[in-house]
Design goal:
By secondary structure, the protein is an alpha+beta fold. It is built from 2 helices and 5 strands. The termini are far apart.
Amino acid sequence: MTIGTSGARALVMAAVVTLAGVAGASAWAQSPTSGVVSVPANALSIGDIESRLSAQGIKVKEIKVRDLIAKVEGYDAQGREIEIVIDRRNGETLSHKYEDDDHKRWRK
């Protein structure tokens, strides 16, 4: 069987890509888990967050959770659209913004 010039190039390129993939995969498999956050067992659940905010008169529309942070979208007791960022470890409000009806801007 004879391989033409373009076939040989394709074969060499396939070998290079395969070797690069194997090398990258082994390096990735050996890298430490420095970016992984350990979520404690007593972190607030979505239900905990929703019930705490409801007790404050906030109507929750959506809760997004990432590691130890929860971002909540909803409406406050005055009917303004709000965004709240909560630390799931202790329930502390890290950020609270609401939409100003008069100017359609977000206020802190």
